[in-house]
Every structure is written in structure tokens, then in C-alpha cells.
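Researcher: Structure prediction, please.
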Amino acid sequence: MIELNGMELTIEQVIAVARHNEQVRISEPAKEKINRARAYVDEKLAQKAVIYGLTTGFGKFSDTFVPEQETAALQRNLIISHACGMGAPLPREVVRGAMLLRCNALARGNSGIRLSTLETLLAMLNRGVHPVIPEKGSLGASGDLAPLAHIVLVMLGEGEAEYQNAVLPGKRAMELAGLAPVELAAKEGLALINGTQIMTAIACGVVYDAVQLAKTADIAAAMTCEAQLGILSAFDPEVHALRGQQGQMRTAQNLLRLLNGSRLAFAHNPEKVQDAYSIRCVPQIHGASRDAIRYVWDIVSCEINAVTDNPLIFPEEDKVISGGNFHGQPVALAMDFLGIALSEYANVSERRLERMVNPALSNGLPAFLTKYGGVHSGFMITQYAAASMVSENKVYAHPASVDSIPSSANQEDHVSMGTTAARKAHMILDNSQKVVGIELLAAAQALWLRGESLLAPATAAVYQKIRQTVPPVDTDVVMYPQMAELDRLVKSGALLEAAEQVCGRLL
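Model: Predicted structure follows.
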């Protein structure tokens, strides 16, 4: 059971809820803060105070006063009108992550929502009522308005929700889960949809998986280094200490641990002075991406505990402040950065793959890793597939955050495009995982040709894990199932686990 107070949620906990259905509750101190803020909102409403979103319209209508008897209709109409998403539904884990993050933000007690309304959203999460949220429609300011409105639609008994693996009308899904629809009170609709929780939920999954990819890419590089009869001195700690970049030093340490005991890669090779950049510079290339991942991890860790709606309620100070915490710029920049960093794993992985399949670059391996070239094409087209995804990543890596388009009659005249940045980063991650998987598949073939008995203990463990489901290729076979299996092994963490059981936890 994870307890929410708005301040201490971790990315690991988000993953536990989003992917593994961990149960959640609101802490007792948080409940007190929520009730205090709501009492303050009710007091201001009774005083007929002019407060944005409470007694005024939204966006360009912020200068239009709304009388007390219309405030409930104002909040319902906000949700109805703002649910303008389009496209394929977001994955379940993103929906669950967004619901959790919205609950956590509201638990800080600065939003003015009723505890009962928040507990309905929390019950939906715990009982598996997952609103159908179209993936497109957010500008990333004022937060993720359109996609979050689709969550609240279901709370109202509208829209659609997935429940027990079936997509149902929102009202029916709530009934089956034993939940009653909510009638929103003043400020509540705005509190529920004004925030960065969609982009941040996507970001949590991407950066969490990026950490695993970074380590798996080091494994792939180590195996290719063996296949290429690489020179280990390039990974000497003294070299990397002179530069002092943390990710670089950690990557070099990983490579040395993975290659310890290898009879294919040596400290020096009398037949060559140095390796190509794609092998020699793995610490520098992978390390820079590793540092980028750490930066993004810190940004996302902060954002999952942020209060991102507007206006914000400060009962103790008797203040209601209209601000801009809903603006997704921190997440947008971070996710663009992460997308670029992840694309580099694929870029250099494909170059290492090319060195294995190209007889002019492979240090004696047969062309395209087949013994019978000509009649058989071997691994020729695996490189095509990798190159295709690398090129696709170059398109996706164009930053979304440099774009902005005015909205709401120019009241909202700069937006972050943070959700677009997060979605792009996820697509880059998927492609990069696949490319690294193809490199691992080819490296296993190359090492089979070199002699699997010559591998380092750690890479041998990875090799054996691959061979449990993917045999060596003697003659041409249908390749895509093998490529799909390596993609699965990369994403599951099975190859990383196999290596770490031998060489210890990678950095």
C-alpha cells in the first residue's frame, strides 16, 4: 500500500501502481490539509470573492463573473467542453500513472477539492476503472487539459472506461465497480484537469525504462567488442578519470566488469592500435546519454510531487494566487533531451552492427555473419531494419518544446508541447530498444562464429540466455521472430539480470 501526501512519491512507486496495480491511499495529515483548503474555498464562495475558475469563467472568459448558483454548472461544463482528445487511447499504464499523479498533487491541500471527490478518483484507480483517454489533444499548457478531462468525464458518469478488460460507457464502468458518479462543486473541475499529469506519467515510464536500456546497451557494446576483437585499454579507469564525466566513468567500469575474463577482447591487440569510435568511444557516447537520463530522472522526480493546477489555495495565509504551475516547460525540455539521449544509443548500436556484418570492417567474420554467403543473405537485412529505426528516431528527436502555438484567443500565448515531447520520447525509446536488440542478436551470431567458449563469464551468461529461445543461424531463416524475441528480452530486463548475476549490479 502506497500512502500519498503530495511530497514523497517516487518514480519506482509510480511504476508499481501504473504497471503492477499497487494499491494507494491518502495519508491522514494530507486529508486534514485537503479539508482545510476546501473549507477556505467555501468561505470565499460565500463572500462572493472574485477568484479565477471559482467565480469566473476560464481562459479568455476569466473576466466574466459567474454567480454562486452557477458554479456547479461551470465546473461540469468545463469538463464536458474540454474533453476534446483524439487518436488512439493512451496505454493503461499511462492512464493509471496520470490518475495516481493527479491524486498526489491534490493531496498537498492547495487545490480546494473536496476529499470525497478525490477519494472517488482514488477508488477508480484502486478498483481498475481506467478512463479511455485519446493520446492527442494536449498543448502542455494549461497543463494536459483535454486528456485529463477524459478522466473526469468518467467520474461524472460520462465518457468511456476500460473495466475488467472491456471498454464500457463511463457510467456502467462506475456502477460495476460500486462507485457513484460525482457532482462537481466549485473549483473542482479546474482542480482535476489543470496540471501536467499526462506528460509526467508518460515521462515516468520512459525514464524508468531508459535506465534499464542504458545498462543493456553496455552489455550489447561489450558483446560486440568481443566479436570485434576489441582493445580493452580504451576503457582504463585512468583515461576516464582525466575527463571526470560521471556517466563516462560508470560506463567504462561496466564494460570492464562485463568483459573481465574474455579471451576475445584484450588490453592490447598486436594487429591494431585502436578500435573504431563506435567501440573505443562507448564510455563517452553511452556515458553522455547516461548523464542525460539522470538529469531527466531528477526533473521527473520533482514533477511527480508538484502542485500544478491554478489558482492555488493558501488557507493559512488567506491567499488565492493565480500562477502558471500548469505550464509543462520543465517536462517538455527534459523529454526532448531524453529523446535525443536515447536516440544516440540506437545511432551507435547500428554502427556497431554494421561493423559486424560488413566483411571490410569485421576483423575476419564472414560477410553478413553467414557461412554460405551468396545463396544465403544471413544478417544483411537486420541492418536495414536497424537503420530504418535510427533514421525514424532522427525525425522524432526534433524537439517539440521549441514549438508553441497560441490558444484561447491569445490568452494562453505560449505553450510547452510537453505531452508531444513525452510521446515522442516513448517512440524513440521503443525504437532504440529494438535496435539494441538487433545488435545483441547479431553479436550472439558473431560470437557463435568466433567460439562461444571464449566469452567473458558475464557475456557468456547473456549469450546463453539468448540461446534459450534463439538458436544460431546456419542457413537463412525467417528473421523477424528472432528480432521480436530479442526485443522482448531487452524490454523484460532478462538479459540485464543474466549479466548482473555474474558480474554484480551494473552502474
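Model: The beta strands are 2-4, 24-26, 86-89, 130-131, 134-136, 160-163, 166-169, 312-314, 319-321.
Researcher: Thanks, that helps.
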